[in-house]
Amino acid sequence: MDIDLLAQTESLFALSNGHIGLRGNLDEGEPHSLPGTYLNSLYELRPLPYAEAGYGYPESGQSVINVTNGKLIRLLVDDEPFDVRYGELHRHERTLDFRDGVLRRDLEWTSPAGQRVRVCSTRMVSFVQRSIVAIQYEVTPVDAPARIVLQSELVANEQLPPPGNDPRLAALMEAPLEPEETYPNHTGVLLVHRTRHSALRMASMMEHIWDGDDDVLVTTDAHPDAGSVTLSTTLEPGQRFRLVKLIGYGWSSQRSRPAVRSQVMAAVTAAKHSGWDGLLAEQRRYLDEFWARADVRLDGDERMQQAIRFSLFHVLQAGARAEQRAIPAKGLTGSGYDGHTFWDTETFLLPVLTYTAPQAAKDSLRWRHSTLDLARERATQLGHTGATFPWRTIRGQECSGYWPAGTAAYHINADVSDAVLRYVNATEDLDFERDYGLEILVETARMWISLGHFDAAGRFRIDGVTGPDEYSALADNNVYTNLMAQRNLRGAARVAKAYPDKAGEFSVTGAELDQWSRAAESMYVPFDERLGVHPQATGFTDHERWDFDNTPKEKYPLLLNYPYGDIYRSQVIKQADLVLALHLRGDYFTPEQKARNFAYYEALTVRDSSLSACTQAVIAAEIGHMRLAQDYLREVALTDLDDLHHNTGSGLHMANLAGVWLGLVAGFGGMRDHDGALTFAPRLPAGWTRLKFGMTFRGRQLRVDISPSEASYKLQDGEPLTLRHHGQKVTARVGKAVRHPIPPVLTPAPVHQPPGRPPLTGNPVFPWSNA
Amino acid sequence: MDIDLLAQTESLFALSNGHIGLRGNLDEGEPHSLPGTYLNSLYELRPLPYAEAGYGYPESGQSVINVTNGKLIRLLVDDEPFDVRYGELHRHERTLDFRDGVLRRDLEWTSPAGQRVRVCSTRMVSFVQRSIVAIQYEVTPVDAPARIVLQSELVANEQLPPPGNDPRLAALMEAPLEPEETYPNHTGVLLVHRTRHSALRMASMMEHIWDGDDDVLVTTDAHPDAGSVTLSTTLEPGQRFRLVKLIGYGWSSQRSRPAVRSQVMAAVTAAKHSGWDGLLAEQRRYLDEFWARADVRLDGDERMQQAIRFSLFHVLQAGARAEQRAIPAKGLTGSGYDGHTFWDTETFLLPVLTYTAPQAAKDSLRWRHSTLDLARERATQLGHTGATFPWRTIRGQECSGYWPAGTAAYHINADVSDAVLRYVNATEDLDFERDYGLEILVETARMWISLGHFDAAGRFRIDGVTGPDEYSALADNNVYTNLMAQRNLRGAARVAKAYPDKAGEFSVTGAELDQWSRAAESMYVPFDERLGVHPQATGFTDHERWDFDNTPKEKYPLLLNYPYGDIYRSQVIKQADLVLALHLRGDYFTPEQKARNFAYYEALTVRDSSLSACTQAVIAAEIGHMRLAQDYLREVALTDLDDLHHNTGSGLHMANLAGVWLGLVAGFGGMRDHDGALTFAPRLPAGWTRLKFGMTFRGRQLRVDISPSEASYKLQDGEPLTLRHHGQKVTARVGKAVRHPIPPVLTPAPVHQPPGRPPLTGNPVFPWSNA
């Protein structure tokens, strides 16, 4: 138990179903780094100040809040509060169980007065009953009889630590919840609150079940911001006392106090009916189904194998039951980035969820769709037609306070469209395509037309935008943006033609379709003939190279130590941008261009963002830099587990965690899905003996099994499926796997990173076992 | 007396000597738009907030404050307070006298109770005694005897109107002054205050002299934030009571309370010694000398003639006694732009002051020099060598809260250097060159070297900067910036070579000199071969043309109605940028390039800044668009007089006022001063019969007299001077003027402005007479 690592463990051990999120705080509440209980999209508004205001700057932002904390169970042993900082801690183990979907804690502690107890707790956020958190808390005296008191609490407006200067940390908002109602009963408490400015109503309720009712004195206490149920009993050595705490959460922006209160009471009653064992069994069943679809097996690297499951589990937790609410960049594991959603969701998380939990991908895209009216308003405000999605938001309004790295990152609109096209292709969910996808595609296509223009040479240019790389801004013809906009425009035209009646409802005309197609086909993609590479944007390769040699290690991340102006005018890359285009629009580039581009940008990319290494892994693997790909994948896998970016404490990097799967499946599996064709080009790095993964594609379960020499493809169910393996047509069927040899890798010319910026190998900050 | 025009008249009738500034508030204080008493560089700090913070953003800004108001004289007539809003105002005239340097007011008013009085006041801020304000206040009953009470006040922390949403308005700071001392005596009061955060100490003192001591009851009252001297008397009809109020101001960041107090007492005592008539005589003498040097006579346009003297008078007021403090963009006429100084000073004001009041130009440049340590610190913070002057400041620290239109506008460094080179050339002040100029030139040259780089083709590029035009930002190779940096580098190398010992003190090496010269000679200046024009910056001419046709009139200024992103990515120009390069670096361009460039940019320039029309006037005249030049000059002349930008109320646009002189002398006089050569190419527009102006050049008084057909040059004093007239060598001497014919103008191809943006003709908002 290393108290210095509390922040990290609170994030790593976070539990969530996408609707409720609990940081891995200790049951007894203290010590803590950041107490965290979150409800998806329950936010408070805060003013966004500007030293110099500008037209279209958002005036208020949305910040996720720490809601009423129901996970508190304090223990007193002979009146001595259990606190790991006092007495003697003999053993303290916490285990995040990916199969059972619970966080287990097992410890033995001797109080300062000499009483030794064993405590086992199991905490769960139910995937099946999405309003429910359940905790089983067991305490057993070891050597001598003991008086035991358990105080189970509900606490609103917990005091939070003051925020630092790092802009990535959430704004502190003191006491955002105004109490509305307090309902105690014999064995539980219900509290209703409302956020002060955003006017969102929430209810939280705790209920308890325990063993040996006769010997237990129970008292209940309730105040507007705190409820507690106290259980007092005396136990013999070896006699275990077991408490099950059920917590229900509900919230609404519209429903009445009684409605929200009743909704939570009903949820808790249903959970009580299921009982602890029932909840546990449901949770296991839900996860069994997930792992059957989505598990990735890697032989030859046990540590990586564990990191893979860790990442898949958290990606599932972030998206499983988000249900038409946003998936934040840090899921519900911390308040980092104010709980905002960015392009991360569509570009990194949804490609994983589309193939492993397609319903979650659909829900997420339906959330985007639900924000279209706001995006249309924003487009109008910005002088565009169509819709402009916000760079960062919770509910849908733009919350970015620095437009050159916010609103100017128009690529998010193409990223959303790309996710729509991918989801529909992977699922053949034509209802979604017609009822949701079409409108997104149409409105974003319109935005591109109004943003860009045809130049004198007839090329369609998109000027003054910021691409994925946030170390450049306001450039012309960012290659990634232009190529993704091209896909957006083509997709919009194709889908609008497929549903002429529906498209007619959005007033799409034939002339408009022609315009989209013409812009797509005339899309300008700059190329630097001198260097033989694509500039990230017009003029990029003319800029001065960043002085890497004179940049000491401690000056990274650069954005915290150098002015934007200096960074923007230099050739230095925070995160894959052109290289991300090589992945997502790999269909545009020749293999030679990919190799040259990768080598050029590799030498400039410092990875001050967690949204880079996975893309570099994918393209390194495609080009044949197998060792480098492996190293990048390791960095991806360790980013949170070893806190490589030093901010895991404020929440996990969900997109990066999704990047583990992308690195494996798109990288070493060579999976691509351009324009509806599912293709593979698998190849394992030295040391790995087997990589096996499953994907859901068009209603079928595909299993891919890769060894150093060959790959096999088979279906678990459904009609045969035609794929490609290293360019060759392959038909996967139920039953016998088709096996294909893997062609030898042609060793490419070596590449290098900026001095001091090779892939991070990790430096285990705490032991994580291989169990 | 139009109360709706109070804001404008308060600015237009402002008095200042560059050290003290008084807005033209009514003597009785009310009604007012914005009460204003300013002391140059007496500012308060205020936090600069950011929705998303960034490295190098200034954390606090400096805002000019409204200091203790000493100009208040309230009048009671038979206990009825004189207020123009009540009773009947028969006559109310105010006259700003450019020869006497006073503001006169003459009115007759009948009180609600029927008492008619005449009031004459004369207000002066002394050019000669720079700490002194003097007011003569005369009141005469007209029809019947009257009891008259005059309350003369000193008021600190006056309540100010709340600021609007316009970012150009000053931040409101309530009660910035903390009282330190209060000193009443029989006939005066002295108050000492200190600013809360910037810790600047100021003292203000009033003293009074009046007629007819025997009949006057005097009482004095003093509180920490208010002092008053009340004089009560009874007058017969036609009997005049005359009060002279002397106000002294002093402030210091370092000196003690007694020192500051004594300094003000001494100043007031000296002024008392001079007496009202003495002060008036000194003021007249000071201005006689100025007008003898600097007056401009224009025959054929009386209204313009008056506007010329109005502008010259205000430019003098802004700079005369600034004495090593900054000259703010609005002088000391209002709190607009927070009282900050920008590049306006060096690029627009100093070219006028250099030739009309060279001592003021020198003082201003010595102020810049005094901020070099701060500019070096800022350069270090930004990762540059040398010095980086702030975009906006009072004391020298960067106060810009939006870096793409602040810190990124590096051209200010070249603008300062250009002003140094001009001043030295025009004055041959070699002491200044060695002791001040050299260091500025060296440190700015170093900054350019570290900012720019040599590209693969050996060209010196300066990327990611913002030029003068604030409707573009963060562009590569802004032509204006690059050409001005070239002059900066050349000047630094030349001057450093001239003072090798002094240069050695700044560690200038031969290698460094070579580098400056090489960068200057390799300076990259982009050219668009397709269009045959210089792009404002690399890629500018590829951008989409702003949709002028669909921009309604009320959407100007664009920056208040469209997002920066939209504006930046379009071809639309706020203010002369490339066209300013045509003026200041006219030596670089061929006449054909000038004509083509002017035509191209004329069609894109909307003049949402007041720093544009004068430059367009200058280049229009050079190219031969005489009528257009005249129209632009009219716009310049009317900008404040007719409130064309709708913000004259927050202060006069000093650079624009300087632009009147520039439009005349550089425009119709064709005066240029590239690299030390003084040249003229005069040419009058239709309707003007004569333009005559004086300039101080290398210690001589040069008089230029232009008629439609010829120009004559002569000196008032000194050795003969070689000039050029339309390219032809001319020697001006004392005595007989040399006359040269003006070659006929070749009518150039027509140019046009964006729809709805022709030169503004003005729409007189209040009558200003031709007296």
TrEMBL record, chains A, B:
InterPro entries: 6-hairpin_glycosidase_sf, 6hp_glycosidase-like_sf, Gal_mutarotase_sf_dom, GH65_N, Glyco_hydro_65_C, Glyco_hydro_65_M, Glyco_hydro_65_N, Malt_Pase/Glycosyl_Hdrlase
Residue ranges, annotated region (Disordered): 741-771
Statement: the UniProt record of this protein carries the keyword Hydrolase: yes
Glycoside hydrolase family 65 N-terminal domain sequence ranges: 4-252
Domain of life: Bacteria
SUPFAM superfamilies named in the record: Galactose mutarotase-like, Six-hairpin glycosidases
Gene3D superfamilies, per database record: 1.50.10.10, Glycoside hydrolase, family 65, N-terminal domain, Maltose phosphorylase, domain 3
MF (Gene Ontology): hydrolase activity
Keywords carried by this UniProt record: Glycosidase, Hydrolase
Pro residues biased stretches: 741-758
Domain Glycoside hydrolase family 65 C-terminal: from-to ranges: 671-731
Residue ranges occupied by any Glycoside hydrolase family 65 central catalytic domain in the UniProt entry: 309-661
Entry similarity comment: Belongs to the glycosyl hydrolase 65 family.
Protein name per the record: Glycosyl hydrolase family 65 protein
